[in-house]
Amino acid sequence: MVNRKELNPESSPRAAFGARVRKLREERGWNQEDLAGRVSCSSQHISALETARKPPTLPLSRKLDLAFGIVGTAASFEREWGEMRHGSLLEGFPEYVGLEGRAVEIRLFEVGIIPGLLQTPEYAQVLADSAVHRGAITREQADERTSFLAERQSALVRARPPMVLVVMDESCIRRPVGGPGVMAAQLDRLIEFAELPNTALHIAPYGIGERRTFDRLVNLLTLSDCSVVSYVESQTQGYLDRELLSVRGMLTAYHQLQAVSLSQAASVDMINEVRKGTP
User: Fold this and answer.
1) Same domain, yes or no, for 70 and 161?
2) What are the residue ranges of helices labelled H in 159-204?
3) d(CA 24, CA 245)
4) Which candidate in 79, 136, 222, 238 could, as Cys together with 92 as Cys, close a disulfide (CB 3.0–4.6 Å)?
5) Is the same domain home to 105 and 211?
C-alpha cells in the first residue's frame, strides 16, 4: 500500500488501539472506506485513528465493536477505551463520571478554575496545553482529557437533564486563562449556563472569608434512588465516597456555602462586570 504509515503498537495506548483497528479491518478484507461506512464516519477519520493522529472516543469504540462483532467481549474496543481513559485520570474519577451521567441532581464547587462541565473547548484546551508544557502530562494524555471532557458534557444533554447547581469561588472568574478572547468566551458561557431552566449558578465572593466551607473541588451527586455520593480531589488522587454520615456532612457544608454566596442574579452581575474588562 502506498504511503502506509507503520506504527509500533507498544509506543502508546493510542497506537495500540489504532494498530488493532487496522489489523481487524484488513483481516476482513475491508478498506478504510468500507469500515467508515459501517461506523458512520469518514475514511479520513479512520486513517487518523489507525495512525494515532486522532484519539478514539467512546461512541466510536462502541460502533467499532458492532462492526467487528466483538460487543461485550474481553477484546472489545469499548473495554480498551476504558482502560486508556482510566490510565490518564485520577483514581475514582472514571467511576464518578459513570454516576454523573445518570444523576438527577449535580452539585459542584470549584476554586481557581471553571468547573469542567462548564468549560468551553478553548478554555479546556489551554489548561491541557499548560499541563503538557509543565511536563505534568503527555500530549496524548492532554488530548484524551479534552475529548473525555467533551463526552462528559454531552452525556448531560438528554431528554430529562439533571439539575446542576454550581458554586464557584470568585477566583474562578477573575483568574485569566488563555488570554482575553478565551476568557471572554468562557464568561459568556457561564452567563448562558445561568439562563438554563435546570441550572443554578452562585459565586462565593472573597468577602465571605472563613465562611467558605471548602478549599478544593467538591462534587455531590443525587441519584435516582435519592442516595447521595461525593467526589473530592487532591493534586494526585480522587476519592469517591458513598458513606452516609460523611456525605451528609459534605451536603450540609454545601448548603451552608450556598447560603453565604451571592444570589444567581448578583453572581451574573459580577460575571458581567468582569466580562467588561475583556474584549
Assistant:
1) no
2) 171-174, 179-194
3) 50
4) 238
5) yes
